[in-house]
């Protein structure tokens, strides 16, 4: 469509994009917030998501056994009000959420206000639901606690759903 609009070939558009993208990234780099720029006193909600990509047979690390497809693992953080504040660099789709968030160093930034997460982040010092013990059950207060933690996680699920409405993130272009 872009080539048609300007009356040039698709190859010319690709060359122009390849030439200008690094320059645009360089100019805008200082405007892109990092995890270090976040307010360390606010409570954040973290979750991981798989962003699909084409099937690479020579890249088995991209295959997610959980989702049964290839993709990239993104870690996402938002505020309790649902404002997206951070997205990690992509990790291979086979990477577990706990390993992916640890590799970013994100959790080191919040020593006093641990983020909320799902059960996939258990053991990382985050506020997570309580797992049912093997062969046992949860007490009433544990069930109530899990209900509260899970209800507080809704904004990050909504933020991820919003991210995935962007065509580049829900189609397998990467």
TrEMBL record:
Molecular function terms, GO-annotated: metal ion binding
Q: Domain named DDE Tnp4: which ranges? A: 46-172
Q: Determine the domain of life of the protein's source.
A: Bacteria
What cofactor requirement does the entry state? Answer: a divalent metal cation
InterPro entries (alphabetical): HARBI1_dom (IPR027806)
Listed A to Z, the keywords are:
Metal-binding
What name goes with this protein?
Harbinger transposase-derived nuclease domain
This chain's source organism reads: Propionibacterium australiense
What taxonomic lineage is listed for the species of origin? Bacteria, Bacillati, Actinomycetota, Actinomycetes, Propionibacteriales
């Amino acid at each position: 469509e872009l080539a048609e609009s300007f009356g040039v070939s698709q190859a010319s558009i690709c060359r122009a994009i390849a030439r200008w993208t690094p320059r645009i990234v360089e100019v805008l780099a200082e405007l892109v917030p990092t995890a270090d720029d976040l307010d360390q006193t606010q409570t954040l909600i973290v979750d991981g998501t798989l962003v699909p990509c084409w099937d690479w047979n020579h890249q088995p690390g991209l295959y997610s056994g959980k989702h049964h497809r290839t993709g990239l693992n993104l870690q996402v953080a938002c505020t309790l009000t649902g404002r997206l504040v951070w997205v990690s660099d992509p990790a291979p789709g086979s990477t577990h959420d706990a390993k992916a968030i640890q590799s970013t160093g994100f959790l080191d930034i919040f020593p006093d206000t641990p983020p909320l997460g799902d059960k996939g982040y258990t053991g990382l010092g985050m506020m997570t639901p309580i797992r049912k013990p093997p062969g046992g059950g949860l007490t009433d207060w544990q069930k109530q606690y899990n209900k509260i933690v899970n209800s507080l996680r809704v904004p990050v699920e909504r933020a991820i759903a919003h991210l995935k409405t962007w065509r580049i993130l829900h189609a397998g272009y990467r």
